[in-house]
Amino acid sequence: MSNISNSTPADLNSRVRARAVGQAPSLGDVTDVYDGFGRIYGAAWGPNLHYGYWDDDADRASIETATDRLTDMMIEGLRGQAGQRVLDVGCGIGHPALRLVQKSGVDVIGITVSRLQVAQANELAAGAGLADKATFQFADAMDMPFPDGSFDSAWAFESMWHMPDRAQVLSEISRVMRPGGRLAIADLIERGPVSPQGRKVLDHVCTNYAVKSLGTIEEYRGALLAHGFVDLDIRDVTANCNRTLALMADAVETRRDELSALVGEERAQSLLDFMRLSAVTPEQGYVFLTATRA
Ligand SMILES: C[S@@+](CC[C@H](N)C(=O)[O-])C[C@H]1O[C@@H](n2cnc3c(N)ncnc32)[C@H](O)[C@@H]1O
Q1: Peptide linkage before 193 cis (omega within 30 of 0)
Q2: Mutation choice for ligand 1 from 67, 159, 211, CB with most ligand atoms inside 8 A
Q3: Which intervals hold domain Polyketide synthase-like methyltransferase (predicted)?
Q4: Does the CB atom of residue 279 touch ligand 1 within 6 A?
Q5: Which of 7, 155, 203, 243 is deepest in the core (most CB within 10 A)?
């Protein structure tokens, strides 16, 4: 487990360094992103560790409103009912799951590969008086420790981009869901055709954020159908969501000293530059989708 408080700057810099293009991230690589510079992003951005959704360019909604709005789209997509059991694949610090519990009355089990997030999420649930409705544990989405058909529904809220094999995760989600259950996914995607400049931006995302490759909408459609999902509603919401990256760069800029202390000034500058570039790179997109387990 990563523990940034016990690490020297040299340790940290090697642990959070960029990886090679196309290399599958290990679980430890993902953990290091979230327990490393991801914590600075989280402190700057807020407890929803995901993008926001804006209706159009004129929409002036705050980051908090826009990120909660995307959570509400996921909640509506699940159509959950009180007493149902929902799996949260890649739960972060549990903020979206608690909103789901409060709005739908479902019970949630969240999984993440950061033990720090597990502790924070369980603490957040206890603080909200929801420890009996929402529990969080360490588990790998590629190989889940749950029996077949043990969940009514599931969501993967901006976690699939880290999965080295998204088809394997969809197969696992399908296995642990009951027939008729609902699935919602929000995720970063690649949109073609990809220009050389677009490829540079996508490669930066992969090498710096523990990602093998971003999926495409076509890959999602094929993998969902192959793993027993029907009733697909797949929406490219890039135009509604990509403002996130520019706003996140502004937010993280306010903590540039912390970021530079962790990853070095040069890499901090590169992370911020690419965030701003990503906001205006059409090849880096965002998908929101729902489906039903056949
Ligand atoms: C961008 S964060 C999203 C967190 C949360 N869903 C939210 O919206 O606030 C991605 C999450 O996916 C988790 N994750 C990445 N790879 C995973 C894996 N193989 N198994 C379980 N969780 C994983 C990370 O630990 C992190 O919690």
Answers
A1: yes
A2: 159
A3: 60-282
A4: no
A5: 155
50 lines ligand 1 (CB under 6 A): yes
Q: What are phi and psi of 224, to 5 degrees?
A: -65, -45
Question: Which atom of ligand 1 is the closest one to the Cα of 95?
Answer: 9
5 contact partners, CB below 8 Å, separation of at least 6: none
Cβ–ligand 1 distance for 87 under 6 Å, the answer: no
Assess whether the C-beta atom of 12 lies below 6 angstroms from ligand 1. Answer: no
Global model pTM greater than 0.90: yes
User: DSSP letter at 151?
Assistant: B
Q: What is the pLDDT of residue 2?
A: 36
Q: Which two tokens stand for residue 114?
A: 């950061």
User: What pLDDT, on the 0 to 100 scale, is given for residue 17?
Assistant: 58
What's the gap in Å between 37 CA and the centre of ligand 1?
15
DSSP state of 161: G
What is the rounded distance in angstroms from the CA atom of residue 199 to the CA atom of residue 215? 14
Q: Which two tokens stand for residue 94?
A: 């549990």
DSSP letter at 177 equals B
244 CB less than 6 Å from ligand 1? no
Q: From CA 155, how far away is CA 74, in angstroms rounded?
A: 8
CATH of the domain at 219: 3.40.50.150
Distance 111 CA to ligand 1 centre (A): 8
Q: Extract the residue ranges of the chain whose pLDDT is less than 70.
A: 1-18
Q: What is the pLDDT of residues 169-219, one digit of tens each?
A: 999 999 999 999 999 999 999 999 999 999 999 999 999 999 999 999 999
Sign of the dihedral through C-alpha 217, 221, 226, 232: positive
Per the structure, how many domains does the chain have?
Answer: 1
Classify strands 153-157 and 284-293 as parallel, antiparallel or unpaired: unpaired
